[in-house]
Known about the structure:
- The chain is an all-alpha fold.
- The chain is built from 10 helices and no strands.
Amino acid sequence: MTNLPNDTRLKDFMAEVRELGRDAAQGKDALPNLAMKTTIAARDGLISTEKDADGNDSADLIYGEYRESESKKAKHEHTEGGIKGNTAKLRSFINLGMLPNIDGAEVLERAVKIRHEQKAKKEKVKSAYEALLDISRKQLDPVNVDEPLTDEVITEVIRKKPGKVTTAQERLAKVYEELSALNDEKELEGARSYIQDAAEMVRDGLLSIDAEVPPITKEEKELAALMAKMSRLGAVAKEAAAAQLQRQLDLAQAAE
């Protein structure tokens, strides 16, 4: 990080971070701006992933300032896992800005422009921050670190993928899993017999249509894992037998 006595850019950047935290507390979508400003600051050498004496890097300090400013204006619960996850995301933008052969900020700027164009065409796109984060991760892929992402790649990354199509059988199986899980809830002890009956009815329904019943108990899960392993071993054995047969055929043909 820069430490020139008359260089106030780092101080100004941290002031912007705190302002964005206050914006977030007021309900504004501040994270995309935080991502962009963090990438620019890293590109300009103001911040880095180098750890200080306390084991913190710039991502820890930036998110700490952002979170503190946000929490002063709104009552938010910040879990340890959430803090680590959000800090890691900021670290991705720092690494993007630090790429020696690519202007990471320019890549993000193009991503913002392309996303606006996609939205104008009524295409389904990811949220602004999610899109920028995925672009950063894509650019940081070892195969992409020497050349900036093309507009075509950026467009595809930003485009929202269709969700997994869930069948009626899968939904019913999910109901069975949920009911089985509720059966262990202490606060529902008075309703346990009804929950068990409902779970059994759903299980019978799955069996009646020859659908797979999800394993629930420890024994069922162990049996399912064993069956899956045996299936994999069986597939390997079949492949080996097929390969052996092919070798024998090849030898027979060569001998003719």
